[in-house]
Amino acid sequence: AKDQGWVLSHLYQYQGFWHPSRQLEGVITCQRHFQARDTDIILTTSPKCGTTWLKALAYVVVNRKTNTPTIGATGNNKQNHPLVTNNPHELVPFLELKVYVDHQVPDLTQMPSPRLFSTHLPVDSLPLSIKETGCKVVYLGRDPKDAFISLWHFANKLRPPHGGKISLEEAFDKFCKGVSLCGPFWDHVLSYWNYSLDNPNTVFFLKYEDLKHQPKLHLKKLAEFWGCPFSLEEENNGVVDDILSLCSFEILSNFEVNKFGKLSSGEDNKAFFRKGQVGDSANYLTKEMIHKFDQISLTKFHLSGLNF
Ligand code: A3P
């Protein structure tokens, strides 16, 4: 099935989910060729659920012995950190959007472990080796209403000037019908929720809202899950706080590279930073829209134990 699309190009339905046409070839190549390793870390999300933030955190945590995360008063150390000069999407590449594009099948065997990758693919579309190895998968989910509003803004930012803006009503209608980037949104998140319940040792399900409310607690859990827990000494030296600060919306979005740079795929880095808050959808959605969203969530998540 094909839809005219409201984010990026036309959307095509593949294995039950909607993908932009330019992404489909990457999806298929990655499914065929990606060989996961036990030591890999795979970050999975629906678009606009905090992927950029999770990538920054994972990159800094995993590489903290080589790149000190401190952003001390002088800013000296900060200047040296790769996150200052690279958007997180360049440091942790999407399998289907960056690694396997243009029919490329790069040799990833020389990359040092742990390798960090990300994907928007739903569970059933993941390359088989991800499920067959013991690699660590983290899913970051987000309240559907906030994810939708974030996606709507993102779509309008990326649309070419002559393409016109998509109205909130039209975007809402499509999103609710499941027609959105990697949608249906509810099936995507539910697929990972169930997957995490079945594989608690290799799949970590986290909500954007929880990471926002208790960042320290969840970052410590993530580091442990990734096999690089914080030592007491690190905690006492403020390393966890330094990492959270370096990756915070305020600091990250204000780096020159994120204000003025572009991804190799062409998007402005600043498109990935808007407000970074919980509950912003309340400023946009009507009562009726909220009701409809909540009804869909109730029906889809019924008896699953998942809620936002
Ligand atoms: P909003 O549009 O609600 O502000 P993704 O990275 O998956 O594309 O998600 C983008 C959303 O995450 C945007 O949400 C963006 O502002 C928010 N975001 C980006 N960096 C963040 C950070 N460091 N901390 C919290 N939220 C962040």
Structure description:
This is Sulfotransferase. Keywords: Transferase. Its EC number is 2.8.2.-. Pfam families: Sulfotransfer_1. Residues 38-304 form the Sulfotransferase domain. With 308 residues, the chain is an alpha/beta fold. It has one domain (11-143, 184-274): P-loop containing nucleotide triphosphate hydrolases (Rossmann fold). The chain contains 17 helices and seven strands. The protein has helices spanning 21-33, 51-62, 76-80, 82-85, 88-91, 95-99, 128-132, 144-158, 168-176, 185-198, 208-213, 215-225, 232-236, 239-246, 249-253, 256-260, 287-301; strands at residues 2-3, 11-14, 17-20, 41-45, 116-119, 136-141, 203-207. Strands 5-4-6-7 form a four-stranded parallel β-sheet, with helices on both faces. A hairpin with a 7-residue loop joins β1 and β2. The chain is globular. The two termini are 30 Å apart. The structure holds adenosine-3'-5'-diphosphate (A3P). Adenosine-3'-5'-diphosphate binds at residues 45, 47-53, 146, 150, 153, 247-249, 252, 272-276, 280.
